[in-house]
Amino acid sequence: MRRPAFLIFAALLLCYCGYLLWYFQIEPRRGIQRIIWRMQTGIWNQAAFQVAPDGSVILMEYNELRCHEPDGSTRWTSGSAAHVSVNGSVPATPSSFALAPQNGVYLVELSYTAQNTVSGSTRLDLRRLDSSGKQIWSSSINSKSMLSSSQTFAFAGGVVVHDDAGGISIYDLDGKQTGSQSPGGAAAGIIGEDQLAVSPAGQIYRIESGQGLSCYDSSGALIWQHKDATTQAWLCYCAVNSLLYFANGQDLLALNSTDGSVIWRSALPVSSYDSPRLCCTSGGQAVALNSSGGVCLYDDKGSYRELVRFDPARLSHLSPGGRDQLIVCDSSEGVSAIDLSGTTLWNVRQLRNVMLEPMLGADGRLYVVSNGFLYCLQP
Fold it and tell me: Which of 76, 161, 162, 197 could potentially form a cystine with 151 if both were Cys, beta carbons 3.0 to 4.6 Å apart?
């Protein structure tokens, strides 16, 4: 009787050793093989990055904006080492940016004015750069901001700048200001991508204290409003189907982005004290993360099902991946891709501590900032 028991124990031990070999050796090597290149960058100063249609990567850190070729080499640099602010004495630093036509960049820069260096007042300037980093035009932003934060959103006819005082400035492709909006209350002093969204046609969606959810055109004129927005409200514009997903308290709404009409309303599986993470799939379906770490997928009627569950304390980012895929960033398990059935397709366990939302390039490559490096992955 002892021998069969010993054989069973030996078989279990062998299986366990095989699992450990797979977990610590084979699977990590598969993850490493997905890395095409990596580039060291300042992990604490890292601010934002985007991938242009030509595959170049625009990377913004505290004191400079850099453009890298698809192979990771540097194409151009703009920042304190390469550009001086309009007053000619204090170096200008990047505040935010967005991709412009022909692989160019809209860059918002912060500088102290010569008159206000002592008082600490700031100045924001919008510059348009071409694909080689050369300036095409520059325009001063009339902002009441006293801090350094801003957001920049490009659309087909120009660019929208949202400063940390809550003000909105709108410019056309030639740098001429076409409209503006005063601070919106809820956004004042708080910069968060979920509080404002811009469609490719130039419609601007903003959550405002006392006004709810407001939609403006590219001249700043009001188009429509939802008055019932709560303080726990978040936005996600989906370009695939032109829907605006609006997390409002305990509800998730799918709105017609043109006129604000409600297409469907569903329960949002998240407590009122949590900020839901929202995104949409390549097919336009809404995805929300609930308070227990469940990734919930909504259909076109508003019904949802939980795909998979993660530890909410470890999950840092949930974003769209390739066709019918989602990218999940976990501080312990690294970066994973899951399909719409909840199955894990691949995992790169080495990429923990992801600082920014991963970006998918037009060529299908995935770009991730982790542990002080920018990684280019082949999914």
Answer: 162
Average pLDDT of 31-49? Answer: 75
Q: Bridge partners of 373?
A: 40, 370
**Banded model confidence at residue 23, pLDDT cuts 50, 70, 90:** very low
Asked if residue 316 lies in contact with residue 354, where contact means CB atoms within 8 angstroms, the answer is yes
- Classify the C-alpha dihedral 75-79-85-89 as positive or negative: negative
The answer to whether 98 and 117 have CB atoms below 8 angstroms apart is no
CB 209 within 8 A of CB 186: yes
Cβ-contact 104, 53 below 8 angstroms:
no
Q: List % helix, strand, coil for the chain (3-state, nearest 5).
A: 10, 45, 45
Q: Can you tell me the distance from the alpha carbon of 311 to that of 330, in angstroms, rounded to the nearest whole number? A: 8
Highest average pLDDT, of 82-86, 111-115, 122-126, 280-284, comes from: 280-284
Q: Tell me: the pLDDT tens digits for 213-239?
A: 899 999 999 999 987 766 567 889 999
> Are 149 and 191 within 8 A, CB to CB?
yes
Average pLDDT of the chain, as a whole number: 81
Q: Does pLDDT of 272 surpass 50? A: no
What does the pLDDT read at residue 113? 59
Tell me the β-bridge partners of 329. 317, 335
Strand order in the sheet with 278-280: 278-280, 286-289, 294-298, 304-309
State the Cα–Cα distance between residues 14 and 22, nearest whole angstrom: 12
Q: How far is CA 165 from CA 61, 101, 182, 260, 280, in A?
A: 22, 28, 9, 26, 29
